[in-house]
Design brief:
single chain; mainly beta; 4-stranded antiparallel β-sheet
Amino acid sequence: MALLLAACALLGGAAAPVRLSAWVGPPVSGDATLLGAGPLLLGAGPLLLVVDPPTLSAYDVAAPHRAPPWRVAVPPAAGWSAEAAGDVLLLTERDQVRQAVATTARSMRTGAALWRRPERVYAVGEAAVAVSEVRSAAEPGRRVEGLVRGVDPATGGTRWTVRLPSTAVLEVLPGRPARVLLVQDDGLTRLLDARDGTVHGQGRLPPADYGPDNPQAVGAYLVLRHPTATGAALTGYDLPGLAPRWEVPVQRGELTLRACQGLVCAQDEHGRRALDPASGVIRWTWPAGARWHTVAGTRAATDALVLLRTAADGRRTLVATAGRDGPRVRGPLPAGVTDCRRAGSGLACRESASRVTVWPLGAP
């Protein structure tokens, strides 16, 4: 009861969390890597991937206890990341400092290898782009250099090429048409069609700490965190024209931006808040939100954030979601869960050293 009351207090009297239902997943080794990918096309669901070299196994997130639809051999690597470009799985191998070594495209339905490129390949809706990441042990992120190439997901062939004069930040804008935003170090910003490289918009953004979360694109708008003469600010821009729409001051210091169900969710040491990307108006605030950390994993801008924090008893973990309607504590996980990842609308974690459990979270 004390745990539930404490969780309610964190959200200012929100409904008490309930015990989450769970699907027992596959057994795994201590060296295995958990990844989520999808959703698939044609009504199929997302996959839970278990990389345990020399084997990659794909499980249906909605039925992780069943035998995997497919299992294939993979080369050894220090790390992995995965995305879906339509019905093609892009599996990237990484070295000890998280740099991309190569990307292999596989069928999401059968696991069959389709092609391989010695680059990081991003999914952009049903298209893809290949980039050379800037080497950085701290944060490879989306910072790229050299050439950006549009890739045909079916064949791995190059459709178009853009040469960068220095480094740039890559922002993926899925949708129809699927687009890529390139922000160069000098502020020159181009919005490219991911299918053919056509420039849909161009402008110049102010100097900023461009990185994995900055700028943040949400729908038809772009939000940038940047320094000003008196401190720092968030500025909203139209897409594709990049005309400024609004600006609001923010405190100096670390501020992380993420898309959450059509809003921009910002986190700093004081808490979390959500802004309307069209106007900069604050839709909700959550002072206790600074204590929660965001779960990693591929998701769309229309998805809520999934957040975790240690419960009041110091053993269990609380799960919350944050989206258009604000934050909501969903319930506690059992003691001892580790290595949590998003898997579609669910949360996949190691509940023990040798087994994975999936908690379906559904609508926020």
